[in-house]
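tokens incoming
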């Protein structure tokens, strides 16, 4: 087994990422699906390094951003919208 130094791990600690699912829904055509996203779990960071790790079929990234509020989605119907405005918690996912 490689030592931490051999594995490329330095003395700085890596921030943990919050991972979550969000249900996306296009307000124009009704296309829906679940996105898997993550961001750094450190409230002191200026940018949470928000990322959509998996996008549902029919949706794509229009403009990436470090913040959910500015991350833009594009539906296959052509509608563009902020990730946050069309996402809801996926607690009801079955």
């Amino acid at each position: 087994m490689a030592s931490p130094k051999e594995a490329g791990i330095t003395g700085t600690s890596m921030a943990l990422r919050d991972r979550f699912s969000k249900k996306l829904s296009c307000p124009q055509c009704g296309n829906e699906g679940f996105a898997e996203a993550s961001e750094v779990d450190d409230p002191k960071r200026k940018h949470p390094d928000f990322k959509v790790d998996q996008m549902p079929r029919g949706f794509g990234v229009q403009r990436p951003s470090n913040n959910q509020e500015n991350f833009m989605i594009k539906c296959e119907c052509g509608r563009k919208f902020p990730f946050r405005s069309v996402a809801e918690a996926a607690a009801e996912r079955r």
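note: Residues 18-82 form one domain.
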